[in-house]
Structure formats: structure tokens, C-alpha cells
Design brief:
Elements lengths: L1 H8 L12 H12 L1 H16 L3 H23 L8 H9 L1 H38 L5 H18 L1 H30 L17 H15 L15 H31 L4 H9 L3 H9 L4 H32 L18 H22 L3 H32 L6 H23 L10 H22 L1 H5 L12 H12 L8 H7 L6
Length: 512
């Protein structure tokens, strides 16, 4: 009886409803941004341009991402779905934009995972060598971490996000202690000049280049939006989770980056020069102000990479699940596990992709921050920023025809969001970068071209697939009769996985 009830209450194309709360969503979004990893890697990179105005660069990046966050919040209030931007842009800009959104969002998040996979192994290998003087290959640690991620994502999304939350609290507390100690130790060096463009070596131009790395640090804030079908009261919970993750991590970034600037004394040209040559400024800062915290700082960085890998993996498989459910990707990816309701086949596919690409790129250019992590992360950033820009435009068009349209919220803010993202997109995708980053724009263009081939194939052979993109939203938002129909359809043995187009043909109001 119990198994029969489960089959009825959760159709094969739907994730388990109501198992997650707002804190769970905040944990996923914050973990996907990897706050500790971001400040460890991106803040020093931004300092080469921003100098002592590094905190200003991160503050501007925070404001720019708040503009994009408004778009996510506005959409999730109406369209909570595992597809997130894929669903939003399908509704706002039409099925063609929806297809390319899903195509770019998928590769964007999918490519983040191999870089994190290799970075985890590299960081642990370095830690083991420095602490225990044992040289164990990085890929052994990476494979072990991936096995844990696979098991957690299959068994329980709730357990996954709870682990993300626990690791986040630990690593953030450690870095906040370091930041507070650094600010206190800085004494009279503390100054509001860190938030003035004049503190950058080249003025506002340097600040602007620093903003690029600041925005890279926020990539992933939207991960909570993919939980729309699994959260309680999703129209309220998902916006709160997205906003909560963005605000919490944004404040953390600005404060910790300011502490690094003041504690290291970046306003002194000699110290700035030493900072730019320092392979790990946070460890140096810790040795100066909290020498007893060195081991926890290193372990926090490792924990941050793992929690980010877990969060990105769970986000990616839900995008794949949504596209498989719509039959754009293989339909088997749109099925859930019979017992645990996880997108099991999407999890297997993404795990295999992460391992194969991670091992390959790691062997090619190295597993560290300047190797596989930086290369795959740059590809992901270009793809995801394009999606963000499309979403801002989509929000304007979607609400333009609705009575509750608000000029400021639904038009002015998304326009500012587009403007704020254009320069970072250009800076990351410009082809005159050093090897192998000069390949980044070409990889993204090749992916878009491949998507175009697939799109025109579907339009010629299966136009109903394109017409039905992004039709699924959280089940609570369907009309009562459609929820009943979904349950009956799940019970019927002859209907294993009808296409969404077939459902829309029978019930036109389903796709409205």
C-alpha cells in the first residue's frame, strides 16, 4: 500500500514536493557561490587592477548582482521550477530563447563541476604534502569526493543541502574570525578610502576590471531557484532563499575583502607589490594576525570547494532533469528515482561528465586554480552571464503585458542589470587572453553553434518539443484539475512518460 501511495503522490516526472525549507535553499545558493573559495582565488586576482580599492570593486559587483537577483526573485514568485532560467526565459522570450537558455545554463553549470573536482584534489594534495609529508596524486582525492557527492545527491537533496549548510557555517566563521582580527590589527590603517576609485592605481578603470572578478564570485547565487519544485510554499520560499543567499554572501565578500585590504596594508605600494606576488595572501595574513588559525584556514578552503562541488552538482542535474522532462535532452534524464525521488539518471550522466572532463583537463593544464579550475570556470562564466542578460530582458517582456507591472522593479532594474553585465561579459570573453583562456570564447561559440543545429533539427522534426519548453512549474501552481490529471496519469500503467506537448494539446491551459 505504501509504495502504491508513493507512486501516486509523486509522478515520475516530478521531484518530491515540500521537503526543503528556506534555510535549505539559502544553503544551496550560498554553497554554489563558494564564498571562501571566491575570496581566496578571486580577490587576489582583482587586486592586480583594483589595488587598495578592492573593496569598492566587490561592492559594485554586489550591487550589480542584486540587480540580477531582482529578476530571479520576480520570476520565482510566479514560476517556481527546477528549470529556473530555462523556464523563466521560455515564458518571457518564447521557446527559442528558452531552448538556448537551457542549453547555455546546462553547459555553464556542468563545466563548473570538473574545475571544482580537480581543485578539490589539488588543494587536498597540497595540504597532505605540507602537513603529513606524503605525496598522494590529486585525482585520488577528487574521485573520493565525487563518490560522496554522487551518493548524497542520489539519496537525499535535504541531506546534501544540510551538509552544505554545516560546512558553510564552519568555513565562514573561520574567515570572519580572521577578518575581524585583521581589521582590529590594522588599527589606523583602516580607512573609507578603500571605497574610493582614487585608491586604485588606474582609478575607475582599475576598479572596473576588479568588478569582473567580483561578479565571477557571485556566479551560482541563483542555484536556489532550481529547488522550486521541492520547497514548501515555493512562490514565497524560493525568492526568500535567493535573496537570502545573495545578501548574506555579498555582505561577507565586502567585509572580508576589506579586511584583507586593511590587514595586508594594500594602500602602501610596497605592500601591494608584495601582495600581488604572494601565492596565498590569506595564509600570509593569518600568519600575521592569527597564527593559531592557519590549519583551520586551509581546511576551510578545502571544505568550501567540496560544498561548492556538491551544490553545483545538485543544481546542474536539476537543469538536466527539466530539459529531459521536456524531451530536449534524452527523456530518460527527466525521470526520478522510484524510492528517493532524485533525478537519478541525470546524476549518473553529470557524474560521468565531471570525472571524464575533470581528469582530462586536469592532465592537460593541471588541476589547480590557474589550470582546470580557471579554464572551465571561465567557460561557465561566459555561458551563465549570457543567461543572466537574457533573463533581465525576459523579465521586461514577461511583465510588460501584465496588470501588476511595476516600472521600477520590472523595467528599470533589469535594464540596469543588463548594462552592469555587459562589461564583465566582454572582459571574460575577449579573445586576446593568454593560453588556454584564449580558447574560452570559441568553446562557448562552438557550443551555441551545436545548440543551433539541434534546435533547427527539433524545429523541423519535432516542433512540439520546442513549443512546449518550460511548461512545468511547481505542482501547487497548476489548476486543481491538472494536479488531479497528473496523479491519475501517474497511476495509469499505459502512460509512462507522455510528452509535455501531448499534455498541452489535451489541456491548452496547462501551458499558459
Amino acid at each position: 500500500m505504501a509504495s502504491s501511495h508513493t507512486a501516486v503522490s509523486t509522478p515520475p516526472h516530478r521531484l518530491q514536493k515540500g521537503v526543503l525549507t528556506v534555510p535549505n535553499g539559502i544553503a544551496l545558493g550560498a554553497a554554489a557561490m563558494a564564498p571562501v573559495l571566491a575570496v581566496v582565488l578571486n580577490a587576489p586576482a582583482a587586486a592586480s587592477s583594483a589595488g587598495a580599492a578592492l573593496p569598492l570593486s566587490f561592492l559594485i559587483a554586489f550591487i550589480a548582482c542584486l540587480l540580477v537577483g531582482n529578476t530571479v526573485v520576480q520570476f520565482t514568485r510566479r514560476l517556481p521550477s527546477a528549470g529556473s532560467f530555462y523556464t523563466f526565459n521560455s515564458k518571457g522570450l518564447g521557446p527559442t530563447a528558452g531552448f538556448f537558455t537551457g542549453w547555455l545554463l546546462w553547459i555553464g553549470y556542468a563545466m563548473l563541476a570538473p574545475g571544482l573536482f580537480t581543485a578539490f584534489g589539488a588543494f587536498v594534495e597540497d595540504y597532505v604534502v605540507s602537513t603529513f609529508h606524503r605525496d598522494i596524486p590529486w585525482w585520488i582525492f577528487s574521485l573520493a569526493a565525487m563518490a560522496i557527492v554522487f551518493g548524497l545527491s542520489v539519496r537525499s537533496i535535504k541531506a546534501s543541502v544540510n551538509i552544505d549548510l554545516a560546512l558553510l557555517v564552519i568555513e565562514v566563521v573561520i574567515f570572519l574570525v580572521l577578518a575581524i582580527a585583521a581589521v582590529s590589527h590594522a588599527g589606523t590603517v583602516n580607512t573609507v578610502a578603500a571605497f574610493l576609485p582614487s585608491s586604485a592605481p588606474t582609478g575607475f578603470t582599475g576598479v572596473g576590471l576588479g568588478v569582473v572578478f567580483g561578479i565571477l564570485s557571485f556566479i551560482g547565487f541563483d542555484a536556489s531557484a532550481t529547488l522550486g519544485e521541492e520547497m514548501k510554499n515555493p512562490k514565497r520560499a524560493v525568492p526568500l532563499a535567493v535573496a537570502g543567499a545573495l545578501l548574506a554572501v555579498g555582505v561577507f565578500y565586502v567585509f572580508v575583502v576589506y579586511a584583507l585590504t586593511a590587514g595586508y596594508g594594500l594602500s602602501d605600494p610596497a605592500k601591494l607589490d608584495a601582495f600581488l606576488k604572494d601565492p596565498n595572501p590569506f595564509v600570509t595574513l593569518g600568519q600575521s594576525v592569527t597564527p593559531w588559525l592557519i590549519q583551520p584556514i586551509q581546511l576551510a578552503a578545502i571544505a568550501g570547494i567540496f560544498s561548492c562541488l556538491l551544490a553545483v552538482h545538485n543544481t546542474t542535474v536539476r537543469v538536466m532533469f527539466a530539459m529531459g522532462r521536456d524531451r530536449v535532452l534524452p527523456a530518460s534524464l527527466g525521470r526520478v528515482h522510484a524510492r528517493w525521488f532524485s533525478p537519478f539518471r541525470a546524476i549518473v550522466a553529470q557524474t560521468a561528465f565531471t570525472i571524464v572532463v575533470g581528469l582530462g583537463v586536469g592532465a592537460w593544464i593541471g588541476p589547480g586554480a590557474t589550470g582546470a579550475y580557471g579554464f572551465t570556470g571561465s567557460i561557465a562564466t561566459v555561458a551563465i552571464v549570457i543567461v543572466y542578460i537574457m533573463a533581465n530582458i525576459s523579465l521586461i517582456r514577461y511583465f510588460w503585458r501584465l496588470a501588476e507591472r511595476n516600472i521600477f522593479t520590472h523595467i528599470i532594474i533589469p535594464i540596469l542589470g543588463v548594462i552592469a553585465l555587459l562589461y564583465p561579459l566582454y572582459a571574460v570573453s575577449t579573445p586576446d587572453q593568454t593560453y588556454p583562456y584564449n580558447y574560452v570564447p570559441w568553446v562557448v561559440l562552438a557550443w551555441i553553434a551545436l545548440g543551433a543545429v539541434l534546435y533547427f533539427y527539433y524545429r523541423a522534426k519535432s516542433p512540439e518539443k520546442i513549443a512546449a519548453l518550460g511548461s512545468f512549474v511547481a505542482e501547487d501552481d497548476l489548476p486543481a484539475e491538472e494536479q488531479t490529471a497528473a496523479l491519475i496519469g501517474a497511476r495509469a500503467p499505459s502512460v509512462q512518460h507522455p510528452t509535455i506537448a501531448e499534455e498541452i494539446a489535451r489541456h491548452p491551459d496547462l501551458g499558459a
